[in-house]
Specification:
Elements: E1 2-6, E2 10-15, E3 21-26, H1 37-51, E4 58-63, E5 68-70, H2 75-79, H3 83-101, E6 107-111, E7 114-116, H4 118-124, E8 128-132, E9 136-138, H5 152-160, H6 162-171, E10 175-176, H7 177-183, E11 188-190, H8 195-206, H9 211-223, H10 229-244, H11 247-258
Protein name: enoyl-CoA hydratase
InterPro entries: ClpP/crotonase-like_dom_sf, Enoyl-CoA_hyd/isom_CS, Enoyl-CoA_hydra/iso, Enoyl-CoA_hydra_C
Catalytic activity: a (3S)-3-hydroxyacyl-CoA = a (2E)-enoyl-CoA + H2O; a 4-saturated-(3S)-3-hydroxyacyl-CoA = a (3E)-enoyl-CoA + H2O
């Protein structure tokens, strides 16, 4: 495993012989990974680097804090910001959440403890959310005079429906893991302390498959949201063409017929 740091509070770790799984680590445990301006910049930079790395098949978002995945924006820092400072911070926050959302490969969030506000929005920006039994998720921004600003008002309705999302956002509810699973706020519940292990295991399983296929499938899934069926099928057809005429497709078919494990070229 190799590592690279982005600023003081963000780290990327590569797993596997070819580094096909990248772990994006939130590393500000003393503040339960509250996102400061500097941390937002670093996360945005890390996402840009991951997006450009063709060797990565899956990204897993994890936390070094024992108490939280991420508690959202650093409200202590916010308390000292002028309106001008807050406006200047906003592009870094948008770049951070957009960076996670727009990663071209599948993404898995490993959640434990508190994942609130912008912290839960980081998880929502991922394709799959694995949480352990200690997880508590929610979007409580209205309780401090804000609205979810990291994609929550758009991503949560796409997960759970408009009415349920409105109820959760307007009440600022904090939802424990088992209820969150039942409501569709998360996708799987691990034993206490097992969220990272389960998420990395899931990512490793995904990474055995074609990198081209994974990225094309994600593109079709994401671009197909909210469009009519005809448009969605056209999006799917474009993704199919991208995969069907790739080196990965040729290798996958050959490996199937030769009864061996594919050696994906990833192009």
């Amino acid at each position: 495993m190799t590592e690279r740091r982005f600023g003081a509070h963000v780290e990327v770790r590569w797993h596997g012989q070819k580094g096909s799984v990248a772990e994006l680590v939130l590393d500000r445990p003393q503040a339960m990974n509250a996102i400061s301006t500097d941390m937002a910049r670093a996360l945005g930079d890390a996402c840009a680097a991951l997006a450009a790395a063709r060797s990565i098949s899956v990204v897993v978002l994890t936390s070094t804090s024992e108490r939280a995945f991420c508690v959202g924006a650093d409200l202590r820092e916010r308390n000292s910001l002028t309106d001008t400072d807050l406006a200047r911070q906003r592009p870094y926050m948008r770049a951070l959440y957009g960076g996670v959302l727009e990663l071209p490969m599948p993404t898995v969030a490993a959640v434990h403890g508190f994942a609130l506000g912008g912290g839960y929005e980081l998880a929502l920006a991922c394709d799959v959310i694995v949480a352990d039994t200690t997880a508590v998720v929610g979007l409580p921004e209205v309780s401090v005079g804000l609205v979810p600003g990291g994609g929550g008002t758009q991503l949560l309705p796409r997960r759970v429906g408009a009415a349920r999302a409105a109820h959760l956002i307007f009440t600022a509810r904090r939802v424990p893991a088992q209820e969150a699973l039942a409501l569709g706020l998360i996708d799987a519940v691990a034993d206490e302390g097992g969220d990272r292990t389960d998420a990395l295991t899931l990512a490793a399983r995904m990474a055995t498959h074609s990198p081209v296929g994974l990225r094309a499938a994600k593109l079709a899934l994401r671009q197909g949201r909210g469009v009519d069926l005809r448009t969605g099928l056209d999006i799917e057809d474009a993704a199919w063409h991208a995969a069907a005429f790739s080196g990965d497709r040729a290798e996958g078919v050959a490996a199937f017929n030769e009864r061996r494990t594919p050696d994906w070229p990833g192009e």
